[in-house]
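User: Sequence for Outer membrane protein TolC below. Tokens please.
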Amino acid sequence: MKKILCIFLIIYIAPYLAYAQDTLGLEDAIAIALKQNYDIRLVSNNLVVAENNASVANAGMLPRVTGDASSSAALQNTTQTLLSGETRSLKGARNTSLAYGANLDWTIFDGFQMFAKYDQLKELKKLGEANLQQSVLATVFNVVSQYFDLIQQKQQLNALRTALDLSRYRLEMAENRYQIGRVSKLEVLASKVDLNTDTTNLMRQNVLFGNTKIKLNEVLARDVNTPFDVTDSISIEDNLKYDLLLNLALQHNPDLQAALINRRIAQLNLKQVKGQRYPTINLNSAYTRTRTTAELGFATKNIGNGFSYGVSASVNIFNGFLQKRNEKNATLEIDNASISLEKVNQGILSQLSAAYQTYLVNLELVELENKNQSVAKQNMDITLEKYRLGSITPLEFREAQRNYVDASVRFSNAQYEAKMAEIGLKQISGALTLD
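Assistant: Structure tokens for Outer membrane protein TolC:
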């Protein structure tokens, strides 16, 4: 009776036993991934670059001020003939020149290209934000899927452990009955074979469970051999609505947002190309100090300082029809961006519709497999008691044992598939959360 009691405790309590390792919650796993994941860190750095680039200075709206200095010297053999006819000669005459000052150059009009470029830089910043959101969603999806895969495998491990304990009990019963002559040696051997089979299945499942842990640690960007445990149950949200998910996807899906931004960037590029038809007007100003010396000539030293200023303008009159070609290519880029937008939009509608149908079917499968597991457990309980009393054959006991394990595995698989369908829908809609 003590053995029977132990078997019952294993069946009902084993799925809720935790390992002697710290439990890693889903929220903690996602927090670690968002902080340490390599892909997110790379995309975050790219976003910072885009933010730094989105400035009026980078668009060419501000003046450019430089400080310049130059110094030169020369040794020359010089001969000068004056108007009076007098000739002066000097060998190794030393001439020096020194100039320094500040220069300002400012493009005040370039056919509105600088404004289009500034808008384009801001759109590139938005594109970086969309790419970061996409990377975050992909990472969160990866973490969540592997986390719930571990829960599924843990549930299957518990079912296989129960099957192994039942096989041990069956072998003990067979050996005891063989000792008193109630069964043949054949039944003992068959029990050993089934026990070895269940041991092998458990070992393989343990290897798979350990490898999945390594993969999750890799996504979390930490030591792949870090020990941890996961929770025991999978909670499924069963009230997702297609229309609400569709509206969210059209507003928040990062792929769709990126396609919209790319079309806007192409439109701004065309605006910059057309701006090259207009004249470019520059203002320039400088303050300069100069000093020159000469050993031969009318002035042996010349010192000066002061401001200079001016305005310049240029316009493209003819450049070998390149302007027309560039505008045509920029227009084609807009067409391509619009086609890509339509393609992404159609793809999202297709993915969402298929994923929602899968989600509904999986919800039904979860309910069905839950009932099957309950029935298989009741059947296992009754079969175990009958086997103890010797009123059923070992083959019937083994069949009930297999049915219980298979039902438990199917139920955990159904839960996992339903959860994957749920988080897949949320990823498409751009609203993947920790729930």
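The chain has a mean pLDDT of 89.
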